[in-house]
Structures are given as structure tokens and as C-alpha cells.
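Quick start: what a row looks like.
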Amino acid sequence: MNHIEDTEQIHLFDWAAMQSGKYPELMSLFHIPNGGKRDAREAARFKRMGVKPGVPDLFLPVPRGGFHGLFIELKAPKGKPTDNQAKWLSVLEARGYAACICFGFDEARRDIINYLEGKL
């Protein structure tokens, strides 16, 4: 993730902690540390450990509205998803998960609330 995405994600988790009284399910939201820059040796080790390019950044393992849970690919407000990220979202949707790309904190917050309230 780039610095802007990192900051957006930190804001999202700060918000989730503050809103966990209203939405206790937010306590289950977690980051999947699948990206980042690594040297070749570490990248090879992570690949052997199961890291897969394009896996979404966030997962909320809470069933809602016929979905098994919500996956979010969080991008900077002017970011662009990779082909691998788009493929993962399609695969996850086909397997019964809600999956979306959110451009920044505001979109992620909106989609999470909509998901939890059964409106996504």
C-alpha cells in the first residue's frame, strides 16, 4: 500500500473502533497484509507461505443480506485497482461474498455501514 492508502486505512480502523458500540460487528474487521514492497528473497518466502497478489485489503467476516462476509479493496482516492485485484473481487463475489473497491476512507465507511444495515 502507498502512504495515502495507509492513512485512509488507519482512519477507517480508528472510525471502526469508535463505532463499535453502535456496530459491534466492526470488532471483527481486519486487514490482510498481502501487499507491500519486499526484496526478492522475502517475496519468495511470502509466496510459499500463501501470499497471493490481488487479495483484498480488508475482510469483515459477518454474514449479511445473503452474503458470507464483506471484502474491501481499499485504494487511495485517485488509485486504480490492478487486474489481479479485480479478478479476486469477481471470484469472491461468485463464491457468495460481498466484494467492493473503495476509493478512500469515506467510501469504505459508507459501504461498511450499508453492508451492516443490509443495503449493499
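That is the whole record. Helices lie at 3-19, 40-48, 83-94, 105-116. The chain is about 40% helix and 15% strand.
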